[in-house]
Amino acid sequence: MDLNQEISCLQRIIEEIFTRYQQYSQKYETLTTEKINLKSKCIDHFLEKENEILNFTIFKEIEFFKNLIDQEVTSFLIEEEISILNTDRRIKNDKSIYNKLLKYRMGPQKGKIPIQKCLNDLLGYRFIFKNNITFDDLFDWLKGIVAEDKELNSKVRVLDSSKDNYKAIHLYFKGISNYTFPCELQVWLNDDDKTNKQSHRLYKQDYLYWEEKETNIVGGNERGE
Questions:
Q1: 3-state SS, one letter per residue, for 49-103
Q2: How many Cβ atoms from other residues are within 10 Å of residue 9's Cβ?
Q3: Any idea where the domains of the chain sit in the sequence?
Q4: Angstrom distance (rounded) from CA 127 to CA 48
Q5: pLDDT tens digits, residue range 3-43?
Q6: What's the CA gap between 151 and 93, in Å, rounded?
Q7: Quick one: pLDDT at residue 66?
Q8: Rounded to 5°, angle at Cα 167 from 209 and 126
């Protein structure tokens, strides 16, 4: 697959994710009995007042959304196409979701982070770009194709999410409204594959710290600093 073919494949994936995700979010908003504005509601809104533990309201909605996506996602692309297009996908597991919420709840902002911002990757895709292209050129191209499409431009954000040794472009797909969870597409260069995976492992280890800290708080063992 040459450079132009790979660029065409990536554009197709972006368009497919956008189309399908609008369908998923429409179905979710139609079927859910809870109407939670995920842009205005923050993590601290879902804390139990007695013990500041996250309550089950948000987890129930997350599980409902995940189940809906899980039923639909297999129709997105057949596995052979996924392999050919250098793309993988995953639905965030329960432990990762809990630990991510926990990290933001116990961090400096004490849970004052919108749910939509915190859980912007319940459904995630990753595309590893194999051909030789600079990061800046790929970023500019992605910004361009989104800006040129009226629908994409209103619902998709293209961000340089590089930090420390992690180097990637993230595209965030918004649903039909603020009452649905976003979706994420990570675009990596092939040369950054190894270091990015190492960075992901370190990031997940950071969750363990917050999980341990919450255990101490629940047990009444947290020490003042």
A1: CCCCCECHHHHHHHHHHHHHHHHHHHHCCCHHHHHHCCEEEEECCHHHHHHHHHH
A2: 18
A3: 3-218
A4: 39
A5: 998 999 899 889 988 988 898 899 999 999 888 999 999 98
A6: 30
A7: 87
A8: 85
